[in-house]
Amino acid sequence: MSGRAHNEITYAEALRQGLYQAMELSEQVLVMGQLVDFARGVFGSTGGLAERFGRERVRDFPVSESAMTALGIGAAVAGMRPVLVHHRIDFMFYAMDAIVNWLSLWRFKSNCESVLPVTIRAIVGKGWGQGPQHSKSPHAWYAHVPGLTVAMPATPFDAKGLLLESIFGENPVIMVEHRSLYALKDRVPVRPYRVRFGCAAVRRAGEHITLVAVGAMVPFALRVADLLEQHKVQAEVIDLRTISPLDSESVCKSVEKTGRIAVIDPAWRSFGVSGEVIARVAERLGRCLRADPLRIGYPDSHTPMSAALEAIYYPSEVDVAAQLRKLCR
Amino acid sequence: MLRLRMCEDALAREYHPADEMRCPVHFCVGQEAVPAALSLLLRADDYLYSHHRSHGYYLAKGAPMNALFAELYGKSTGANAGLAGSQDISYPSRRFFSGAVLAGAAAISAGSALAATLQKTNHVVVAGFGEAATDEGVFWETINYAALAKLPLVLVCENNKYSVFSPQLKRTSSDNISERVATFGIESSTIFGNDAPLVHRTLSAAITRARNGAGPTFVEAYTYRWSGHYGPASDDPMGYREPGELEAWKRNCPIALLEHEIRSKGMLDDAEKAALAREFEAEIQACFQFAKGSPFPVAPNWASLNFASATPEADRLLTDVDVNEFNAHQELVQAKGY
């Protein structure tokens, strides 16, 4: 490939680049969602696509989340590779029937004869008063359903690689993107590449405690690890990248070394990713743990709007670091 | 129609008390005209989507009867190897799909119609469903989008009046579905759905419109199910049908009406009908033998049933990331420490 092999670009730009390249690589790729054909489309992640590929393939869709998902399924049955985009994951609940009753079980009920390479991108808001209706992160709900892959890219590099892997794979994928990550810059290869599902990444090596994180909590965990280092605690930070499939191997390998685990999940604490990860570790290494495992997430409450309450609701690096230091004593 | 009727009657006789078909079956006795018309009108590359009352549509697309029977018996030789059953049966190589949550398959069908316009193929898509599917919101979202995008789609509503035991006018403020659909700008009509030649003419025109790029059509075909909501037994003891209603519809049997018409034109006589019946009966008996004699499925690999592991398109188009390059990238992320 001529020119630079990498660009330093934002998470939003990485998504846009992934979509652009996917549409160039295959005419079967189709993008649907509200306002995807606008210049600043979906926080910058779909801008310019309509101008290049036309509004037949880059389709502004009515506020009909349920039908949009069903149309994505039907297009995939006929050989297309649709990408559906939700500005707010909260709106996607209207599509639950299509996702759970149809999309997830299509392959199963056809005895693997018909597959649905449908990619659903959904964005989770946080802060600036997003409040209870624009900040839910129900990724664990989807991971609970057989047949759905759930990807949670935390870096621009992964955003592009996981998106391309979703589009050109053969399974339905829900990609949960945290809005707070959109401005992050990172070095991203120019060529179309893949990040395989179920391969966690060690973002930082450490000896004393394993911090497992997903999505927006990966940078958070790295900041926590910095704070812990000031107190001579070396945290290993593992980014799961996909929660279904879930790379238990990498997590267990790390916990074998550290003997301690905390999971930081950008969601309500109960019945979530943290519980699942800790259960998998406990099933294999329960007797080897040197401290009680810890779930770190949001209170089991809906998100408040007021900035004063947001500051209390969302965990802070300082508080979490203090909790973790207790585990490492 | 006669083949479908005999198939359903035979399945119904075997359903109870043998209890070897251990899945919910929604029989379509009395509702044969729409699927029978479609069986004459659809091409191999057309898609057909159906609701849970699926057998007529399944056969209409040329899917094999023996695999239908085996599916109901939960056998490995079933259309879906015993994974789907009657209400979610599919036959992908014949482009036939179904599903039980009412409007879902109709909504999905619009996506296959969208694909036809984008892929510039000439296939059309037909979806059959009951009138209760129009109680669900996604139906109207789909109608809107089908009209907006002028999709090559034919939506056939088999209005059999009841959602399980609940009559239409207990559930909706009016029974003018096709009038409401027409307001979206969709060609729309209501017909007597047991008049097979009329159903054939109407659907033929709709499919031609779709194939010619003239957009979607909605057809509401009034018909009636003779059996209960599911299973062969009447659920009359529930008291939801008006007295005499079933008898009136039986007097308007789609098969008897057609038979009367073609006999009067000298196109069918007793000997010809008996020959047809013998042929279908032999086919049906062979299907029972096939289904009953087939093995049950063995323990599957649950993971591969639910997730594909092969990724041929990704393998072809995407590159893996070089490990060294990836590690360099990791350092960059860490250095930023965001």
What is the secondary structure topology, with strand pairs?
The complex is a heterodimer of chains A (329) and B (338).
Chain A (H helix, E strand, L loop, with lengths): L5 E5 H15 L3 E5 L7 H4 L4 H5 L4 E3 L4 H13 L3 E6 L9 H8 L2 H4 L9 E6 L14 H6 L4 E3 L4 H13 L4 E6 L6 E5 L11 E4 L4 E5 L3 H14 L4 E5 L2 E3 L3 H11 L2 E8 L4 H13 L8 E5 L8 H7 L3 H11 L2
Parallel strand pairs in A: 2-3, 2-4, 4-5, 5-7, 6-7, 10-11, 10-13, 13-14
Antiparallel strand pairs in A: 1-8, 6-12, 9-11
Chain B lengths: L1 H14 L17 H9 L5 E4 L4 H6 L4 H8 L23 E3 L5 H16 L5 E6 L6 H12 L4 E7 L2 E2 L2 E2 H4 L5 H6 L4 E6 L3 H16 L5 E6 L22 H7 L2 H11 L5 H24 L8 H5 L5 H6 L5 H14 L2
Parallel strand pairs in B: 1-2, 1-3, 3-4, 4-8, 7-8
Antiparallel strand pairs in B: 5-6
Helix pairs in contact in B: 1-12, 2-9, 4-12, 5-6
CATH topology of the largest domain in chain A: Rossmann fold
Q: Point out poorly predicted stretches of chain B.
A: none
State which percent range the strand residues of chain A make up.
15-25%
Helix-and-strand structural type of chain A: alpha/beta
CATH class of chain B: Alpha Beta
Give the largest chain-chain interface (CB within 8 Å).
Answer: A-B, 71 and 63 residues
Distance between the termini of chain B: 68 Å
Share of helix of chain B, binned: 40-55%
The CATH class of the largest domain in chain A is Alpha Beta
Radius of gyration of chain A: 20 Å
Shape, per Cα inertia axes of chain A: globular
Global mean pLDDT of chain A = 95
Total domain modules of chain B: 1
* CATH homology-level superfamily of the largest domain in chain A: Thiamin diphosphate (ThDP)-binding fold, Pyr/PP domains
Order of helical and strand elements of chain A:
EHEHHEHEHHEHEHEEEEHEEHEHEHH
Give a quick account of the main beta sheet of chain B: strands, pairing sense, barrel closure.
6 strands, parallel
Q: Within the CATH hierarchy, at the fold level, what is the topology of chain B?
A: Rossmann fold
